[in-house]
Design a protein that fits this description.
Elements (H helix, E strand, L loop, with lengths): L18 H11 L4 E4 L6 H9 L5 E4 L3 H15 L3 E5 L3 H5 L1 H9 L4 E7 L15 H4 L8 E3 L6 H15 L2 E7 H4 L29 H13 L3 E5 L7 H11 L2 E4 L14 E4 L6 H9 L2 E5 L16 E6 L13 E4 L2 H8 L10 H21 L8 H8 L8 E4 L3 H9 L7 E4 L9 H11 L5 E6 H18 L8 E7 L4 H11 L5 H4 L6 H7 L3 E5 L5 H9 L5 E6 L13 H12 L5 H11 L6
Parallel strand pairs: 1-2, 1-3, 3-4, 4-6, 5-6, 7-8, 7-10, 8-9, 10-11, 11-12, 13-14, 13-15, 15-16, 16-18, 17-18
Helix pairs in contact: 1-2, 1-7, 3-5, 3-16, 10-12, 11-13, 13-14, 14-15, 16-17, 18-22
Length: 606
Amino acid sequence: MSAPASIVPPLSIGTPRTVADHLVARLIQWGVPRIYGYPGDGYNGILGAIRRAGDRPRFVQVAHEELSAFMACAHAKFTGDVGVCMATSGPGAIHLLNGLYDARLDHQPVVAIVGQQSQFSIGGHYQQEVDLASLFKDVAGNYCQVVNHPAQLRHAVDTAFRVALARRAVTCLIVPHDVQSQDAVETPPHEHGALHSGAGFRRPHVVPEPQDLDRAAEVLNRGQRIAMLVGAGALQATDIVIAVAQRLGAGLCKALLGKSAVPDDLPFVTGSAGWLGTAASNRMLAECDTLFMVGSGFPYTEFLPREGQARGVQIDIDAQMLSLRYPMEVGLVGDTAATLRALLPRLHARANPTWRKQIERWKREWEAESQRQAAVETPRINPQRVMAALSPRLPHDVAIAADCGSSTVWFARNLQLRAGMHATLSGTLATMGSALPYAAAAKFANPARPVIAIVGDGAMQMNGINGLITVAKFWREWKDPRLVVLVFNNRDLNFVTWEQRVMEGEPKFPASQDLIDMPYARYAELLGLSGLRVERDADIAAALDQALAADRPCVLDIVCDPTVPPLPPKLKDEQKHKLAQALDAQDPEAEEVRHTLAEAGVLLEG
């Protein structure tokens, strides 16, 4: 998709007949491999054009428009190319919004193409009439355009894709139903007011000015206790990130979207940071004298050094993200890998290993504590045991999609990734219900790659079961059919339950928190997939082995204990006070929670 228009192969579908045909031809020129969507009469003309083009690009019918937008976002995350989704006018377009906001907040290039009622009916309170330009104005603020004339189509498509790629943004094209069927104008007239655009975009490697690199190097070379915090911007820069950390004698911790940026088996990589992070990462950030943030918009500022404690250097391709979380002394606008390569020769090798040895000791202590926490006996399965069993079983090239909820904590804190693995999730929006469509998109992007989805039962009930419908429709065409869905079934909207306790001092409110015990494995079997229900610790390993060896996607319904606390490794006194207050206020699980907390070593007031 980054190829210049001059080397785009010639079209094979013939001369476009309608605006819809021209649109499909332009998508082919932009290298779009597939479109995720759900059909509707608002864009029937475009669907017909895709059919006439021999299903080029391929149309992938997804069970819900929200999931199609998630899949477009995940396509961008797993491939680096533009993800494309389509929807009909009115309700279909509205359904796209959550997935599109996921892409917008995580800075992913996505183009949404939506139908609209015919132009002559707009403003007449026509069925399914929605002001789509206003609807998408925020989520696609960089470019949202209604195609009102056939000659406008070419430059509108080209601009939507170029802006999406260049700004890592969501863009939107609104094509009214009657415009779709009009005769195409493939080449606009050569006259005043006409626009003649071209397809193709190649992302530049942006590198800061030498004097700015020198300033950054001066700060880093003076640091004695350097902590590197890397995010999604470092995903394609693993080797150079590690080289810089080695040169500086720094410790490496990760924001959630950067979990697979560096492998966890390096002794100086301390894992995730923040609320979902490890004790080693949070302690390193608390005690560093220099903070080096690379490609991250890490939001939990309370886990960063106190202002004035540490000098700061930050690299980000987006200048808006510089000094947003911490007052950086030097902010570098640039591509992560290119900037680090230019910076590395300016950095001095560290001769004093004291800080690094301290970090490695903190990591060993955390690993021992993590193993102890996973061994805590609970009435139902301790979810940390699942991750402890899964980590060594991960296929070397696995793609992992995690959802939002308490399962995210175990993914972030306990799952150990190795080189070659790729993991992602809805980072900034942190929306529930993204893991299944993300996982399906990962399979479409690379059908030979094994995929694992980590999902809570709340997200599974919200729309994960619809995601399974999409998986059931397409899995037989994947070269490697393995897609393992781990459902952490604790019959509770667990993360919010614990937020109520620790942040608000409120006991669990069953009316808002309790979930039914849906038979997820049996539902998978109804769809022709494999399913296993796991209720005992002793069965975890065998179930994982069976799922990872299955000849089709497999759902593991893991009955987990809701009293295992998805809390930061170290609670503040105020948080302990509120938790004790909540448990004293007739929390229905108070006795079980106190027992689990005591076993986990969390001491409350009194």
